[in-house]
Amino acid sequence: xKRWGYILGGLIVWTVHFLGVYVIASVGDVAADADHPLSRxxxxxxxxxxxxxxxxxxxxxxxxxRRGGDEMGFENxxxxxxxxxxxxxxxxxxxxxxxx
Length: 100
Known about the structure:
By secondary structure, the chain is mainly alpha-helical. The protein is 87% helix and 0% strand. Helix 2 runs antiparallel to helix 3 and helix 2 (9-31) runs parallel beside helix 4. The chain has helices at 2-7, 9-31, 37-67, 73-99.
């Protein structure tokens, strides 16, 4: 289970970000308006936190991959690739909500 968490770490962060942005936009729409500055700020901060988490996981996996020497070579490749795709996707999802 620990290996699966490592391999899918970036994708899990992306999933959490997707759900979080959806919840923030929904609450913002019910409370006032989805374009409210407070809602945009919350999405921006949450996007930044998730981007840092996905980027950290990507860098850690890429360093382990480059270092080599362990039996988790393929897992490191998948974790680094998934983390990079997740970071790009988080940025892609978060920017329109922040910019408007």
